[in-house]
Design brief:
Elements (H helix, E strand, L loop, with lengths): L1 H24 L8 H18 L5 H33 L1 H25 L3
Helix pairs in contact: 1-2, 1-3, 2-3, 3-4
Amino acid sequence: MIKGLALLSFCFLSGMWCGSLLGNSLGIDANVGGVGFAMIFFLLLKEASVKKGLWNGEFAFGIEFWNKLYIPIVIAMAASLNVKSALSSGLLAVLAGLLPVLLAFWVFKVLIKKLGTS
């Protein structure tokens, strides 16, 4: 499990570095997509370890554990930050986030009625 945590930490730090680098190159004083880079690095390194035959025992358990845990936590953290930002930014930001969600619910309702439940 420690090896999985080490790989996760490496991916996180590399992703944060890439996000900061991208932000600086765009002239923004912020991290742009660092968590996304980290998730991509993590998934790519997992696949590379499978191809090289390193995917066994404790290493596999550590990777699978953090792989299942990392992505939902990051998405939940990003979503809560987006909600806080939207609420503090005003009504237009709230509507820009709320309307696509309501539209998606409506599309799913129409698709389920059209395709049936079988």
